Amino acid sequence: MVDVWLPYGKTDVCVRIPARNLLGTIEPKEHPSAVDQKAEIERALKEPIASKRLSEIAKPQSIVAIVVDDATRNASSEQMLLPVLLELNTAGVKDENITVIFGCGTHRAVKPEEAKQLLGEAINRIRVINHNASAPDLVYIGTTKTHGNKVHINRVFAEADVKVLLGDVQYHYYAGYGGGRKSVLPAIAGTETIRQNHALLINSNSTAGNLENNPVHIDMTEAARLAKVDFIVNIVENKKGEIIKAFAGDLEAAFLSAVKLVDEIYRVTVDRRSDIIVVSAGGHPWDLTLYQALKGMDASLDAVKRGGVIILVAECIEGYGNQVFYDWMTRLNEIKNVEREVKRNFAVGGQRAYYLLKTLLNHQIILVSVMPDFYATSIFKLKTARAINDALNEAFKITGSASRVWAMPQGNSTLPVYRTPEENKN
User: Fold this and answer.
1) 108 and 184 share a domain?
2) Strands, E assignment, 123-230
3) HSE-up of 175 (CA within 13 Å, CB side)?
4) Looking at the structure, do residues 224 and 349 belong to the same domain, yes or no?
5) What DSSP character marks residue 200?
6) Count of domains in the chain?
């Protein structure tokens, strides 16, 4: 037996896989963190990509808005924010003229205790607000050229003199990558703007790790341009959540530099597809809800055969996580109905039903979580197991005792890409 540990909530669980069945683990390349992570942020601020320094962009009288990730992301916001505040203070900007906006998109608001955890000591210095995608005072800033999306964004951000985005770059299942432009749309955009953007996800180019002709990415980028973002700080982290490198400067140039490093570390080639894949959503906070956790499952699909079994290890302590997701699964029930609804009347959260039902066409999914079986099985059409090894035994019953198994501990960040041995030679 080979013991493989997988993140689950704020702890880890162990799956015991017979050595004869195990193909191996699919994991990011080992990469050390920056020797001094604070110094790495400071270096990036001093060496901006295709941009002036933030201290040169801001003026003493500037009103500054800074977007940071909400509680569903694990970006090192405090580590980025403190050097950014110092850079602004150096330019003469006073703390009282700086507002940090949690880019919640359509997610719930960040709770006070979460805000303190995310921002640390900075929370006592500056104004901090949650973005509300349904707020009545959103500002219309223009319409995207390629897809005609009317862009409404947070008023505080729209009216600021200096606009800054902080975030991390990793794979995203239909935007290609998180980070950069995504801190505007969806992070601080209106519900209808987000809805129109996310309706583009059924395009075949809207996939993890792809920006080329990806309509979701293109629309997001155009929206961020309309928002007139002045400066970004994006980081790439290793699998321990430590900062490897920071990228600061121009909205697009700094983001694309980070994307290259993400691919170097997290894109993993596999030369064989398994019968069973055991994948963790990545633990807390990526597995707080089923809605979030399923993104980790999506990343694993190229490493498992059609007809294979996916074991998703995700605590889901906050349940299914999105009411539209729930409603679409109960009301529409079948992939053809969901596809029709995406095209005609897309609602944010519906994309999760689309991806889940699409996966279920070719795979069986066993969920290891604390979610009540009623929801997991009756609503979301998943098999369930309370223990990971019970799930593996069930998977062997489905695919056969000789089945080959991949284990994927970091589904939230890893992107396996299948290539035949012949393709790998080229």
Assistant:
1) yes
2) 127-130, 139-143, 150-153, 162-168, 171-172, 176-177
3) 24
4) no
5) G
6) 2
Tokens of 350: 């519906």
**Domain match, 178 and 298 both:** no
- Structure confidence by residue, pLDDT tens digits, 154-209: 999 999 999 999 999 999 989 999 999 999 999 999 999 999 999 899 999 999 99
Beta-strand (E) ranges in 144-272?
Answer: 150-153, 162-168, 171-172, 176-177, 231-237, 243-249, 267-270
Burial 72-83 (b: 16+ CB within 10 A, else e): bbbbbbbbbbbb
> Quick one: which H or E segment has residue 24?
strand 22-25
Task: Report the distance separating Cα 93 and Cα 26, nearest Å.
Answer: 46
Final residue of a structural domain among 265, 288, 319: 265
Which of residues 265, 288, 310 is at a domain's end?
A: 265
395: left (phi over 0), alpha (psi -120 to 50) or beta: alpha
Which tokens sit at 33? 């963190």
pTM: 0.86
User: For residue range 60-114, what is the model confidence (pLDDT) as tens digits?
Assistant: 999 999 999 987 666 688 899 999 999 999 999 999 999 999 999 988 899 999 9
Return all residues near 16 (Cβ < 8 A) that are at least 6 apart: 1, 2, 3, 4, 389, 392
211 and 291 in a single domain? The answer is: no
What is the residue range of 340's domain?
2-27+271-425
